[in-house]
Amino acid sequence: DIQMTQSPSSLSASVGDRVTITCRASQSISTYLNWYQQKPGKAPKLLIYAASSLQSGVPSRFSGSGSGTDFTLSISSLQPEDFATYYCQQSYSTPQTFGQGTKLKIK
Amino acid sequence: QVQLVQSGAEVKKPGASVKVSCKASGYTFTSYDINWVRQATGQGLEWMGWMNPNSGNTAYAQKFQGRVAITRNTSISTAYMELSSLRSEDTAVYYCARRFWFGELVSAFDIWGQGTMVTVSS
Hints:
The structure holds two protein chains of two kinds. By secondary structure, chain A is mostly beta strands. Chain A is built from no helices and ten strands. Chain A has strands at 4-7, 10-13, 19-25, 33-38, 45-49, 53-54, 62-67, 70-75, 85-90, 102-106. In chain A, the strands form two sheets. A six-stranded mixed sheet of chain A has the order 2-10-9-4-5-6, with no helix packed on it. A four-stranded antiparallel sheet of chain A has the order 1-3-8-7, with no helix packed on it. Chain B starts with a strand and ends with a strand. Chain B is mainly beta. The chains are: A mainly beta, B mainly beta.
């Protein structure tokens, strides 16, 4: 199975900050990498697919980049509704494994 | 609108089985794979398996092989996940999710059910 490792595990930031979350795969996955946002008590929500493509309806302050084994999710100017947990997921092979999550907290 | 609606919370004893349903609406049920993902309290997301609702073909994570079965009833656009020989470690929220194909080989889970809490306790 492909292992997905996110860093950091948690992050404190303020409204208006730019933040970056990193995801590393245990082997090359090309650009078969998705990002999800999850708020407490809610199902995950798809933000980015294929490493850098923005899902319909997702604000443009979210962006993704990377290929091979190293990927990033960036939020250009944090809004109050962005404080949540973020997960990466590889869709290169079955099982489609997730990272352990990055909790974004208000500073 | 496009949505997946899951059945309600369950409480089961160790050794029992649980069957969670996931009803699709707003799209053609047989056109998209259904995946099941679980999340223990305070933990991350764990993929369990998927099913092609058209063919009924399935694939399961090695960890759940022999204990999980994903089935469907196409007449009512509903998928099911049954997990047997339950133990306390299976206490979690179970989600169904639709896999959308954005292009050749590119897919992601674009629609999720609201989640079903399964508690395993004696």
